[in-house]
Recover the amino acids of this structure.
């Protein structure tokens, strides 16, 4: 347990950030999963709709620091590649 006021404050901040990051990562995983499920069904329109939503969620998570920017770019790239494959 922390003894100093500053250490106690840092613990509170870290806990809030941990919960926020966990929520954002979970939301990101769900968005990616929905795009992949739509691709498995084969509906090009639905895939593009889900892809746009997922891109927004992933980029926002990267901006907030829940995901590394290169991890976010890789996820978006792979999903876009999948969507292009389905739409052709």
């Amino acid at each position: 347990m922390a003894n100093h006021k500053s250490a106690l404050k840092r613990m509170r901040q870290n806990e809030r950030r941990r919960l926020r990051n966990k929520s954002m990562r979970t939301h990101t995983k769900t968005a990616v999963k929905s795009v992949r499920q739509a691709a498995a069904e084969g509906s090009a329109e639905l895939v593009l709709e889900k892809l746009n939503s997922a891109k927004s969620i992933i980029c926002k998570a990267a901006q907030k620091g829940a995901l590394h920017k290169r991890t976010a770019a890789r996820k978006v790239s792979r999903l876009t590649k999948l969507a292009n494959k389905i739409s052709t």
About this structure: Residues 25-87 form a domain with the Methane Monooxygenase Hydroxylase; Chain G, domain 1 fold (CATH 1.20.58.110). The chain has one domain: 25-87. DSSP finds three helices and no strands in the chain.
